[in-house]
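The aim of this short unit is practical: by the end, you should be able to scan a pair of folded records and say something sensible about each. We start with the first protein, listed as its amino acid sequence and then its structure tokens.
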Amino acid sequence: MKIYIKYMVSIRCKLFVMDVIKRMGLKLIKVELGFVEFEGELTPEQKDLLASELLRSGLELMDDKKSILIEKIKNVIVEMIHYSDELPKVNFSVFLAEKLDYDYTYLSNLFSETEGSTIEHFIIMHKIERVKELIIYNELNLTEIAWKMHYSSVAHLSNQFKKVTGLTPSFFKSLKDKKRINIESL
């Protein structure tokens, strides 16, 4: 049985969910961003208990097919930007369509209609947060970060960074108190 979980977008969330499931004594097959797979079916009581345990930390079970698809879109993007060593070589639209096996226009329209912003905006917000993280680590220079995050140039990265944050990457790097947004809050 597969159960989809809303707002499960980080490794911390996965660890929390695994802990809840372990405490409940449920037989787990797999935990991924956005879903959990169990051996066999859950009883209604187990499902209710799981839902209430998850809700305490801001996570929710989902049954609606459209909501599940929106979460899948978000989780593919989060996984791709924050947890992959390298971004895909194809356009994000092609990558999402292939990964989720849906037409990109359908995914895009559903996302915009439900979330009130575009998939592209969601991707940009996550890319900028990842760029902030890479700047804070101070292991790569801006040229390397631009290349790693598939920007056409440092100027393109800098322009997008400034549009989103109001700061240049260089000024952000010079700040003592570098503010990042939790992935869960994006």
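Turning to the second protein, read its sequence before its tokens, just as you did above.
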Amino acid sequence: MRINPDGTYFIIGDNCITGENVKEENILGLLTSVIRNGKVLDMNDKNYIRFVHFWWFIFPLRKVYKRMKAFVHRIGSFVKRKVLKIK
């Protein structure tokens, strides 16, 4: 996602809501393209870069959504077990 002032890289993996800082020597490769449904998606394509910027922009909202989803699930489980007596 970005290079930090100390030279480390801030990355966010697939299906993660938190990022991490890694040193350059711990990076094994760089993704340049993906084949999805028989189509090649170039990581340098302007539309893909726009998508990544949008996805990064809404990152805080995605974190809140995941936490709210987990919270609602816990409440639902509590209601089923304690109120409705369903196991």
